[in-house]
Structures are given as structure tokens and as C-alpha cells.
Amino acid sequence: MIFILLLLLLSPSILISQDSAPVIVIEQTRKVDVAISPISGTEGPAMTKVLQNDLERSSACRVVEPAAASFTLSGTITPAGLSGRATPKNGGAALVDSSFNGDARRATHQFADAFILALTGTPGFASSRIAFASASGPKKSSKKEIYICDIDGANCRQLTQDGALGYGPKFSPEGNKIAYSSDKSGYRDTYIIDLSTKKRSIIAQFPGQNTGASFSPNGSTLALSLSKFGNPEICTLPSSGGEPTRLTQTRGTDCSPCWSPDGAQIVYVSDERGSPGLYLISPTGGTPEKLNTESSYTTEPDWSPDGKKIAYSITSGGGQIGVYDLETKKTRIVSRGSGLESPSWTRNSRHIICSQNGTLVLLDSLTGEAIKVPNNLSNNTEPNTTR
Q1: Minimal CA–CA distance to 121: which of 19, 37, 216, 32?
Q2: Which run of H or of E encompasses 75?
Q3: With 90 as the cut, is the pLDDT of residue 33 above it?
Q4: pLDDT by residue (tens digit) across 116-165?
Q5: Would you list the DSSP string of 42-69?
Q6: What does the pLDDT read at residue 316?
Q7: Residue ranges with strand state E in 135-276
């Protein structure tokens, strides 16, 4: 009831059916005017700016002066984190009134996420992180290391020191592990890094290529591309290591698997019919289903958290991001410009992290707006976000 009353403050469109109560509908592209009262505490000024950036990146808010705002956010930084509150313009119960633990930046991101969830009903992504590969360093070369940063580009740190080509990092569902491939041993093997212990283990070291590992929704299984059977095929194996189970048997190259959120299907890339396209298959195998993306060269699929869409790279035409709607079976290009690749959905199933000519960007799939993610590195590729 409180949520509906707060929505009414925003003057949304209202649809009324003959048999039911009014249904509140807020257009997804409409922004809510909010104000931020300066956060108190030693780090308050910096965190006020962080909160403003978080809200503006969400595409759900526009930060304005208090007199024009529907909500005002305020907070206090403490040694334990942040105490945050979001109050409506016309009084009444606070939309958010909570304490958020952790360092100042992380607590501020969590406050932003809590407000966006309460406001829109969809998760915020300010506290998400990005894993990616980069060739940045004193001497640029074909060698790439794996890095991690906050979704706003802050707290960037290097995870590997392999001195080799590292690629394809993917977070586990809990966000505490990263699977990636590397030529460190002289062969293309798959590793897992435990972010809490900083330990690394080799998971797939079969003859040939071991690439493209993706965690299942429960984290127990990896889907990846192995060439131990001949051509690169989609296989699964326990995320702790073990023997693989082969899913595909084609004459082409099968790669880049990604699980559906319910774990019932895997989308992957295959060129068995000529140019690369997207296919669906069950984790137990069976006959693959080809998706008609209406593009001649589609790669790097990523399934949205809500299970409704698959984003992918369109290599032809200069590099674009496409989205396939699984219900309507329709496709659309959601990016502008060129040089875009490697899409990874954020938690709200609206925004996409991708790379554009070596720079990480946050892409709004509804408006096409792309915002740079500044991490002071260049040649950034293959980003993947925590959910």
C-alpha cells in the first residue's frame, strides 16, 4: 500500500480495467526527480557525489534542487558504514530508512541500490562489480591480464600476473569467484580465482582448447567449449573439476556458452551453418534450436537476469549490440555508434556493460545511451558483471 501511494506522488499513467482496481504504470524511460541532502561525516562530500552518480547512472532518477524533488535522500557516514534515508516530498513514511555496512563507497552504493529497488521494483546495480581483460601496462602487447573494478570504475585492481593472454572472465552467481581462460601454461586452459582467498585453481586442462567457462545459476557446474573431442564443442563439468559431459556434436566451432537464469537452457555460438549464430540447448544435451537474430554474424550471448532477453554482439556492420526477445522472437539493435562488443546484463535487465573500442561503457538498452566507465586502463575487453 505504501509503495502504491508513493507511486501516485509521481503522477504516473493509470490504467483502469472494468473488473479490478487501478493498475499503476510508470514508463520505464521516465525519470523521477530526487534531491540529495549533503551526506554528513568526514567522507560525506565525496559520498554525496558517489550517490548522485549512482542515481543518475540508474536512468531512473534525475538529481534536482530540493524544491523540485519528489524524494530527498540523506545520510550519515559512520565507522560501520552509512545510515541512509529517502523521504517523499509530501511527508509520510520513508521509502528507505536503513543502515548499510562496509566501507563508505560500498555502503553508499548499497543505499543507492535500496532506493532504486524501492522506487522501481527492480534491483539497482550500483554495488555491482566488473571483471574484464586488459592489455594495459608499461608495454602494451597481445598479453592480457584479468582485472576487477566497481561498476563506476573505482577500486580497479589487477587479479592476474600471468604474462600471457587471459580472456573471458565470468563471475560465479555469488560473485566470489571468477572463471577465466589463459595461455599461461602454453595451452588454453580454464582457471577459477577465489576472490576471498585469492587462490587460483586449474579446472580444465584437457588436450586442445579449454575456453569460455560460464557458471550455472547454482554455481555447481560450468559450461565451456572444449576441443578434446576434435572440433570445439559445448560441454559441462563440475565447477570443482572433473570429467566433462559433451552436449554438442557438430562439424563447426561451438563456443561462448551462457546459462538461462533458471538453468534449463544454455545459449551458445556455432558456425555449423556457415557464419556464427546463436543456438539453444538443454544442459543434458539434445537437438539444438537456432535463434533467428536477423544478423549474419552474432557472437558473445548473455542471458538477462529476468530470463526474457539475450544480448549479443553483432560483428558485421562495425560492431553493435543486439537483443533477442525470447517471447516475441523479435530482435533489435540497442546500441549507437560502432565498435561495441561483449555485452553483460546488469541486475535490472535493462542496462548492459560492454566494451567500445577498448573502453568499458554502460549501455541503456532502452534509450541507446552509453556512459563511459572510467578505470584508467585502455584496451579493455570481455567485461562481465556481478548479478
Answers
A1: 32
A2: strand 71-78
A3: yes
A4: 999 999 999 999 999 999 996 544 557 999 999 999 999 999 999 999 99
A5: TTHHHHHHHHHHHHHHTTSEEE--GGG-
A6: 80
A7: 145-150, 157-158, 166-171, 177-182, 189-194, 200-204, 210-215, 221-226, 233-238, 245-246, 254-259, 266-270
CB neighbours (10 Å) of residue 99? 15
CATH number at residue 24: 3.40.50.10070
Q: Which amino acid would we find at residue 201?
A: S
pLDDT band of 29, cuts 50, 70, 90: low
> Looking at the chain, how many residues does it have?
387
The boundaries of the domain holding residue 149 are 129-385
Is the full-model pTM beyond 0.85? yes
Is residue 188 classed exposed, middle or buried when 0-12, 13-18 and 19+ CB atoms within 10 A define those classes?
buried
- Side chain identity, residue 284: T
Choose the final residue of a domain: 56, 87, 120: 120
